[in-house]
Design goal:
This protein has two helices and 33 strands. 6% of the residues lie in helices and 38% in strands. The protein is globular, with a radius of gyration of 21 Å.
Length: 441
Amino acid sequence: MRRTMFTLLTAALLAAISPLALGEDWPNWRGPNHNGSSKETNLPVKFSKTENVAWAIDLPGVGPSTPVVVGDIIFVSVATPEHQMMALAYDRKSGKQLWADTVAVAPPGDNRSNKAGPSAAADDKHVLFFFGSGDLACYTHDGKQVWKRQICEEYGDFAFMWTFSSSPTLHKGVAYLPILQNTRPYRQGKYKPGKDSFILAFDPGTGKNIWKVDRPSAAVAESLEAFTTIVPHTNNGKEELLVTGGDCLTGHDPKTGAELWRWGTWNPTKIGHWRLVPSPVAGGGVALACAPKGDPVYAIKLGGSGDISEGGLAWKSKGGNISSDVSTPLFYMDKFFVLNSDRRAMVCVEPKDGSVVWEIDKLPGRAKYEASPTGADGKIYTISHKGEADVIDAKTGTVLHSTDMGGAGVDNNRPTIVVAGGNLIIKVHNKLYCIGGGKVN
């Protein structure tokens, strides 16, 4: 009896402290659940560049990529002023740099970004770094390079008007990468005429392909191009990979890459300049596809087979702020949260019918919000192009806190706010902040 009581008390104590002590990693661009949410609790509400800061460091470069966190290590990629594409690792407790390596040297391809746009992806053994130059490298957590590939040398130069920036996804021991591109080159190089878009699955430990499948599309010109990331999702026990771009949303078998179903299109007249940036997000039995350039959000029924273009649409948003040209929506607390990048608006909607729960017509920031929102601890965290961060009550839409984490010269800031171990990890231009005093594993 005494032993039983002791066991029960121990279990109760562990249950009570686990939300703070155990924390969650943030191993992929859209977090541990691939939808922008985390089970983290006890997260900061009030903070600034000087308030509630555990540490802040200067990075050797800049880039739109979002940090990822596994255990005690933060992994982040940047491009230096000398165009070095760098893989970096920092201690989550102190901010101390653990290691750094130059993966490649690659000058910018356009004047709006650099080639350090893709976010890293990590598991408990490896971390993958990918760059818009096509360089893909794997490291152990202590900084040893395990292997390296050059995707453009293998399959030809990327065909994108703007710098390619899809992130790899690591899920259940397999890495996935989409290359959804044009069929004609923009620049001279290693371009191979007539190539199709494709998706790759490869072993993160060896870099060897598990499968490579073409991903055809009826889109034309720039509308073939997507900067989206593959999203794994399980619906009614069936796991699928969700891929959006080329004017359609498709579901694929994770084991073979075979296309299971396809819905399209948000572009029936085949407009030729509708490149796609927001990745899909799933929840409540549907997956959202955000048409670009101020057009609606489409909710597609999951669980279909074959061509579901006729009956697969659950609902479509109707005007107003439920639209996103860049930011990927969040699924959290059984709701979707759509951040309208250009209007600086946010809308909470029901998955079943798209009805509005609450709406913020204008967020406090002065600049566009292209970073995707994060949901945790009953709150939503957003950040603008200028580094203006907001904390929003997820139930009511009340803005709880706003602060400027940027400064002079900060613009085009797009990294997502990351939550891990009771802290916020915020990357703004060439600064990396760890916010909050939550216990770190």
